[in-house]
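Shipment paperwork, digital attachment
Item: protein structure file
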Amino acid sequence: MNRSLYLRFLTILMVAFAGWLVLWPSFTRIAPSWVTAKIPYRLNLGLDIRGGARLSYEVQIGAAIASRRDRIIEGLREQLAIDYGFHSGTGRLTEEASQRLSTKVQFRRSEVDNREFSVVFRTASENSRLTNEMLTQRDMRLVRREGDRIVAALRQDEAEKIERESVEEAVRRIEQRIDALAVRETSITTRGETIVIEIPGSDQAYFDEIRDIIRKTARLEFRMCADSSTFLERFRGGGELAGRIPAGISLESETVSVGQRPDGTNNTATSPYFRAQGPQGRRDLERFIGSIRAEIPETYDLLIGEDERRTRRQTGEVTADQKWWRTYSVEHVAHVTGDQIQSAEVAVRQDTNQPYAALSFKTDGARAFAQITSDNVGRRFAIVLDDLVKSAPVINEAIRNGSASITLGSGDFRSQMREANELSVVLRAGALPAPLAEGAMDFIGPTLGQDIIRKSITAAAMAVGLVMLFMAVWYGPAGWVANGAVLLNILLQISAIAFLGATITLPGLAGLALTVGMAVDANVLINERIKEEQRTGKSLRAAVEAGYQHAFTAIFDGHVTSFISGVVLMQYGTGPIKGFAVMLLIGIVANLFTGVFCTRVVFDWLIRGLKVKSLSFG
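Attachment content:
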């Protein structure tokens, strides 16, 4: 044999060995430990074969756009405060500067369009302070100017960019959260604003845990409490808004620390808040806050948190109906956010045996945290997660070590530990760019999955077996060469799936069966062409060369047209259709390699190496 034939034969052996090496770790019963440790590739069975859950979530793009709009408003407020001389331009806008600015200009968010807001100046002559350049620099456009009012909105191209990036970022965050839980073989796909997550398995509690972690927005903020504010006093008896408090909600007062005197002692004030009990009470509070939104100054927010002190007064195990909820008056501006967190871990307090989430900040976060705590010693600091106040401790001294902690409220040790772990996972992965609305949740039980596996393997084995039997009977020795190519073809297709990290689904198995049929069809064309050349009196060697040469064009054209169809299906198809397309494309490449290259090498070896002078082609 010449050197070229040796190289081609060695290429086939190397490809076959590489294919087996990729597949070997998937056969855990025969794969030694060093193989599974060193080779990362695995054969993943799809949800329709193994069984599991399919979750769907809708990315709330409107919330992401509204969040971007609100950040722009804060930037404009700071700029106008500088122009009016209320703010130096260093650090965040102070509460005093915000209050002074509110006497000059008011920002009002649109209730209809989350891209739009209006700016109302005290006098029409002052609206020139908000220039078109200030808007365009912040990706806004001017809608109209009318007297003392300016209406602006987020540009359309910027809104579309936020929509696209929000979905991409949500997928990335979800992947990070799932990876942190060591959940393997999970498939995440997108359909517009919908994210579809497929998780193999059969444990309902396992699925519920993943659902809870995925749907947490995990937007963490540290805000100063506005305990000195008096806007809730209007709801007391005799106030003009007292009649708006619904049944089940009461207005209470507490004495809290609101700052430090020069001598080091704390100033106190009586701070009002609303309170209600149980899940229904919490929902009533949320609706009530929504109904009085216009009565809350724009520099403040009214948020809900658990009233732990009142809840803990009750004896025995506290049920959800016994939990108390309350409001916190906080500043609108978040001084430190979750984006500035370096790490989050679960820890347990030695004195109380209570789990909590221990946080450490990045350099900029540690600097901001130290600044805000040193400037507000003696005041309460609200730790807010997804607009829910987790705790509101008093700042006793400046915190300069770049760390903080979040307690988990009431509950037994096990539930607090689970909540602390989930919170740490989502904080490490980062906040979602927008909330997720949970859609349908479909289950495929493990029994159904096993039944599908048995039937699928049986059907695939029967199809391949019958095809190989036909080739062996009809074409004799040449048919056995084709059968060897078919087996190598199957090995390469399955190993390619494992190497690419793709998942084998039922449509994928259908694609495998189809490409096996295409591989046999290519060998049929070659064998029939060789038979025709032999009938003209050519030698075996000449007939083989002519047969491959003349059959290749038809084989190549047929595979190219199928390849184009597969590319279109993969580009525009979703779910099962894409799985079929992936297997089809892999199979076409494997067909050309095994059906044309490999079988030609075998025939050349028989003719040139073993000097075979005659060979039956049926």
